[in-house]
Amino acid sequence: MSHSHDKTMLAKFGFSDPDLRLPRHDMACRFVSIYHAGVRDAAMGVTRNPGWRIGKYTNVWVEYPIEKGAGQYKTTIGFADVFASLSFEKVNEDGAKDFINADVLFEVKITPVTASEVIRQLNLYRSYKKPKSTVLVVDFDYDASSVDMLKQEDISVIKLGNRFDKWVKHEEERAVPSLPTL
Fold first, then answer.
1. Which of 29, 48, 127, 168 has its C-alpha lying 20 to 30 A from 133's C-alpha?
2. Average pLDDT, rounded, for the chain
3. pLDDT attached to residue 181
4. Quick one: which H or E segment has residue 164?
């Protein structure tokens, strides 16, 4: 059976993302999309000046299509795992507030991949969609050289940790809502 991701330009270039079929990947995308405190640390790379703090998400999308062209020439390049528009605020000495909005692209990887694979994928996305910050969220350990390589390409790296594992356990223990039947 064909999957919508199989028809993207990324798939045509030979990229594959085995994580897409893993429930833990879906959970990680959901976690990133709703968990403000976890995102704050990663997103603060958007404003490197002291005094700015994350306000709120203005919009969040999971499996956000990265596209080029319009109308009949529109092509999907790939799908960002999570794409968020974030609002930042700073209170000035006179009490007035300044605001900026910034887009942040999050890519989630559950199974280990090389830094060069991630760089190729995210550079392709960023050639069509220009986020203020790009964050790789991983569920495995990267060596220092790989992290340095990613940082050199302006890709921040954060690791899912104990808080995520606890959240997953809580979500798995929740009662399944009664679904309507046909």
1. 168
2. 81
3. 79
4. helix 162-173
